[in-house]
Amino acid sequence: MTKPVLYGADYSVYVRIARMALEEKGIDYELVPLDIFAADGIPAWFLERHPFGRIPAFEHDGFRLFETSAIARYVDEAFDGPALQPANARGRARMGQIIGMLDAYGYKSMVWDVAVERLEKERPDESLIASGLRQAETVLTVLTSLKAQRSWLLGEQLTLADLHAAPIIGYFVKVADGRELLARFADISDWYARIAARPSFAKTEKVG
Fold it and tell me: What's this model's pTM, rounded to 2 decimal places?
């Protein structure tokens, strides 16, 4: 079997989610850099791998995938290594609920409306940041209510829910607004400290 290939940029939250899954499984993989915001635009060859021009895209032995959740589940099920999904239906449903919530309500507000706006805009839109923080507070409140009273979001087993949440919150806390809000949620703060200490998180951190 050839090593899997992941296409995307190291700055991407969703590329990092897929990379963390590969790292947690102990899989040797190739990351092919691809910047969808480059001045030259998205190369035509990449649209064969992701027709919507988003990242990441994935290939393994001629099998192609896009959409991060699909990639992460395939990585967990197709390769040896520690299981990253619960064995029971309710656990898998809760995992899917958390991932879906983060995609629908957390990613844009935490990453784009707060962190990117604060980090990359010369004159940040404070009303957009305030709205993003209100949404982020709801996300963290709900995540607290769904989190098991154990080490990880679903209990003692690290799952794809943890690997999905970590890069989103990791980007959010690049700015003081995010750090201050997260500090108000003790259970999630403690969880984040644990996930941030894992080698898979450190190895996928963008440098510079």
Answer: 0.96
